[in-house]
Design a protein that fits this description.
mainly alpha, three-stranded antiparallel beta sheet, two-stranded antiparallel ribbon, 9 helices, 51% helix
Amino acid sequence: MTNETTTSHATDFDPVERVKNQITDYIDFLVSSGELKITKVNSHNLSFELCATAARYALEDQHEPPSKNFTQIVGDLHTSAATRQYLNITQEELDQLVEDHLILKVTDSSGRNGYPAFQFKNGAVRPEIQKLIKPHLDYTYPENPKKHIAEPWEVALHLTTRSLLHGGYSISDYLTKYPEQLDREIKTLQHDLHKRAYAY
């Protein structure tokens, strides 16, 4: 009889276990990186705060209408013309930004190309968002360097979907409120991409 090995992927997990595992992994990462200090003094309050965040999500956030389409989550999409005018650049320069993974260009459910508005501020691409877009789009699978882990629309959803780990904020909104957390977000992204690549 031949022994068969079954590979489990994240999508095969029970949804409850998946959430629990992701939260545990994230806490382990924060502790191992030294960014989260858990001591006898603060452990009780920390547990309370984490439980309170989960409770707030259970009582309020999860009851939002679940059936949102792409643009309802990501927000407005600018046309190429509007984006060029906003950034004061040429089409060639815009195409280069897309090619270099320094700006998000996505296609909505109607097949229209656009540039998510959340990535722009004060006439420029938000630098903190740019620092998350590029490594996300650059990352490839080790055994297939030509295959990228994420498409632009996945990155857009990743940055704009509200998350329990960010206190109910999206990463985009979280960094607007807590810009000092950018380095942590970059490290978390690198950690998540590495896990995803080797689970493939």
